[in-house]
Amino acid sequence: METVDTRNVKIYALKHPDTLEIRYIGKTVRSLRRRLGNHIANAKGNKHNMHLSNWILKLLEERKRPIIELIEETSYINWQER
Description:
elongated
């Protein structure tokens, strides 16, 4: 019997703190604060997504952080279509 994941998924944007330009769209089942922390840690560490990591590192050098903003919350089953 297959189990169905019933968690809610948060679809979010990472924005530039000065221009509010959207630089990244992602999804998470965690809190947005925790997800932003993961992005920052990844940028400092393994650089999973080089483009995103380089952008975050540049902001950190300027003593800034990306803004994380919830776009939509949906069920895990249909997050991809959203």
